Amino acid sequence: MKWLLYNALFAVAYAAMLPSFLLRMKRRGGYRARFADRFGRYPAEIAAALRNGNRIWVHAVSVGEVQVAGQLMRAMRAKNPSVRFVFSTTSSTGWKTAEREISPGDVLIYNPLDFGSCVRRALDAARPCAVILTETEIWPNFIRALKKRGVPVYLVNARISDRSAPRYKALRWFFGEVFRCFAKIYAQSDLDAKRLADAGTNPSSVAVTGSFKFDVAHRNETKEQELRNWIGDGEILLGGSTWPGEDVLMLQTYKKVLERHPDVKLVIAPRHFEKSDAVEANIRAAGFGCVRRSRGDAPAPGAVFLADTTGELMGLFGISSVAFVGKSLCEHGSQNMIEPCLCGVATVVGPYTENFRPVMSDLLAADALVQTSDAPSPEERAVRVEAELLRFFDDPARRTAYGERAKAAVARRCGVVGRCADELLEAIG
Asked: Based on C-alpha coordinates, what's the Rg of the chain?
């Protein structure tokens, strides 16, 4: 009965979200490509490649999750060069990142919708020998279908957010059966393991590994030099993966930075590139020119740099002096703060970092970055971030010390992916 209810509710939810999907197709262009994949129907050449079978199916959604999955696949290939993968994602941005993570022998597809018929067609076509899901990808019909077929399914870098934990616990009667389908779950922290147990997971199937994301980030010196040539000499203030409103904060801060340090340059890298036009409008409204990466604009004196291209954020962190990590002024938020820390950048994040709870615990314990305290209003939260960014530019010695501690903290926590790759290969055989 509960599965009939789930399928009915999922159908209603999908119908309600369909207009937003269609709008996203129009905005992003590439999103409409391979749309039939979502119904388990593939182009002839993809279907032919899948017929070889005996692949490990890996699924990830966001850019960060795709990079985690890519690192795991590289580690597994290094230990067993014959292993082949089916890689699935759900978004066009995830797809673009995945294209850089897979090898020529792998197959890239969009994940099927969680309708029974779509899942059956996809599994009939792919015939995986095992499935690896990342972080919070819990699709009940997909997972239960794998269990029925005797295909082992694993969850890596698993986390249960502060917002989701009460829901999973309250719906233990539903999610418990789903979580018990996993052969093994690799959790980021003890708290995540407890929350999984509260949701009905068999505790013996959970191992606490730490975050995979400490292993994912790698500096790209070629890209750093390319971006340095674009921006030019001088210290850089970077707003990385900013969300709406955070670009305005960076512009306000930049005006004050320039009063004391006139040679500093500001780079804004918005999280969603389709919002770049709005960011450019804010830049011009603040009285600055805009040098846009996607247009190939040449640098101009006194202009703000708008980095609106995929795959260059890590390179920007590598050449920055001070960085703010975006979405951390929004509840249930934050983007990846490991990347600037790896590069030895003095890093500031806002009060909302729930998506990186165990990572933040480690970095704060090492005094590797600055997290501002919460405040009743968005304006007050912004003022606190602004003050910390200014303080780093006013105190170079403090900035250097934080950068060195950050780099060391990340280095100490690497190695999780390799250990899990060993376990997964042994279990999958």
From this structure: 22
Residue 31 pLDDT exceeds 60: no
| HEC profile of the chain | CHHHHHHHHHHHHHHHHHHHHHHHHHHHCHHHCCHHHHHCCCCHHHHHHHCCCCCEEEECCCHHHHHHHHHHHHHHHHHCCCCCEEEEECCHHHHHHHHHHCCCCCEEEECCCCCHHHHHHHHHHHCCCEEEEECCCCCHHHHHHHHHHCCCEEEEEECCCCCHHHHHHHCHHHHHHHHCCCCEEEECCHHHHHHHHHCCCCHHHEEECCCCHHHHCCCCHHHHHHHHHHHCCCCEEEEEEECCCHHHHHHHHHHHHHHHCCCCEEEEEECCHHHHHHHHHHHHHCCCCEEEHHHCCCCCCCCEEECCCCCCHHHHHHHCCEEEECCCCCCCCCCCCHHHHHCCCEEEECCCCHHHHHHHHHHHHCCCCEECCCCCCHHHHHHHHHHHHHHHHHCHHHHHHHHHHHHHHHHHCCCHHHHHHHHHHHHHC
Amino acid symbol at 424: L
Domains annotated for the chain, with CATH where assigned, are 23-210+414-428 (3.40.50.11720), 221-412 (3.40.50.2000)
Please check whether residue 283 is in contact with residue 268, taking contact to mean a CB–CB distance below 8 angstroms: yes
Q: Report whether pLDDT(23) > 80.
A: no
At 423, the pLDDT band (50, 70, 90 cuts) reads very high
* Residue 56 CB contacts under 8 Å (≥ 6 apart), including other chains: 76, 83, 84, 85, 86, 128, 129, 130, 131, 132, 428
Torsion of CA 377, 245, 63, 18, to 10 degrees: 100
- The token duo for 234 is 């001088």
User: Of 354, 62, 347, whose CA–CA distance to 188 is shortest?
Assistant: 354
Reported as a single tens digit per residue, the pLDDT across 187-225 is 999 999 999 999 999 999 999 998 888 888 789 899 999
Structure tokens at 219: 């500096």
Identity of the amino acid at 204: S
- Residues 224, 236: Cα–Cα separation, whole Å: 13
Beta partners for residue 108, in sequence order: 87
CA distance 359 to 337: 8
The pair of three-digit structure tokens given for residue 38, joined into one six-digit string: 């979502």
Structure tokens at 299: 């640098």
Mean pLDDT of 358-367: 92
Q: Which of 300, 409, 304, 301 is nearest to 360 (CA)?
A: 409
